[in-house]
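Sequence design from tokenized structure. All designs in this work follow the same two-part layout: the structure record, then the generated sequence. An example of the structure record is given first.
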């Protein structure tokens, strides 16, 4: 399979940050990119070359229309954590991909997933979607990223990080995480979409070396050129703050991952050596310090860097 030949890619979730990074990269490489959105009027204007069509994953007809003519598909599920609804979305995607003759689906689970059932909606709904897509008859590659560096470049983290040198996040300081950026996720997705020999693979991807909270702060200090200290936020406080931005149901779904990590049943879930996935995909991802140094942190600062 060659990326040199421009393909027709359906990106499910392109109005979100992760799907948006994927759509932007694919369009920038000359592929024709389409996405389905319930609100085309507010589709991402920063993603040039992407066609947004109106529709809903809950409508089989809408999904069939969006997939018409697609050669490849990338799927990131929305911040929805109802099992029946996610299963319905996945069934519609699977049926549309099969009928349209899609060559390969890359499913971004958007999180690592424990080996055993954890009773956490953020994990179990993604496990359901993965199972549906794996059974649909279209070649599938699954990518399971850990936690996104871009979460720290935000109005919630940026000002305290830049002005006060405090990196606050709802993970215990001793948890090791192979942090990855949205842009590196997109690079991994593109490789999974077009490289040969990957069908059926499930890859735990991650950027650079896994680090604990204090090592993460040290990498930020290196990138920013000033001292940074890590502060572990209580997951409940994180969930309450997040609920104000995305609503209580979505916030509970997202925060479920951090409650699980804080309770410690699987301390190595977001850890691991990313080199295996890098070798399988034929890519090299960015170091944390390199990513930090490349960001426009002055956006969040009230005083000059």
């Amino acid at each position: 399979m060659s990326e040199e030949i421009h393909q027709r890619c359906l990106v499910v979730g392109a109005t979100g940050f992760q799907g948006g990074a994927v759509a932007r990269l694919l369009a920038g490489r000359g592929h024709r990119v389409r996405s389905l959105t319930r609100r085309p009027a507010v589709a991402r204007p920063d993603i040039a070359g992407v066609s947004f069509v109106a529709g809903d994953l809950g409508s089989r007809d809408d999904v069939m229309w969006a997939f018409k003519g697609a050669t490849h598909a990338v799927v990131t599920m929305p911040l929805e954590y109802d099992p029946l609804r996610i299963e319905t979305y996945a069934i519609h995607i699977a049926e549309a991909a099969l009928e349209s003759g899609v060559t390969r689906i890359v499913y971004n689970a958007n999180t690592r997933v424990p080996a055993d059932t954890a009773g956490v909606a953020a994990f179990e709904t993604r496990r359901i979607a993965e199972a549906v897509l794996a059974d649909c008859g279209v070649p599938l590659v699954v990518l399971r990223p850990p936690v996104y560096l871009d979460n720290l470049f935000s109005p919630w983290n940026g000002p305290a990080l830049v002005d006060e040198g405090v990196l606050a996040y709802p993970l215990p300081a001793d948890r090791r995480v192979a942090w990855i950026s949205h842009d590196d996720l997109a690079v991994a997705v593109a490789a999974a979409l077009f490289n040969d020999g990957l069908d059926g693979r499930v890859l735990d991807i991650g950027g650079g070396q896994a680090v604990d909270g204090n090592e993460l702060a040290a990498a930020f200090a290196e990138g920013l050129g000033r001292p940074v200290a890590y502060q572990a936020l209580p997951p409940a406080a994180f969930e309450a703050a997040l609920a104000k931005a995305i609503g209580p149901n979505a916030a509970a779904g997202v925060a479920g991952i951090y409650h699980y990590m804080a309770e410690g049943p699987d301390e190595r879930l977001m850890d691991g050596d990313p080199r295996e996935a890098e070798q399988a995909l034929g890519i090299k991802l960015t170091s944390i310090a390199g990513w930090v140094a490349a960001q426009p942190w002055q956006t969040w600062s009230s005083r000059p860097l």
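The chain has eleven helices and nine strands. We note this feature because it recurs in several other targets discussed in the main text.
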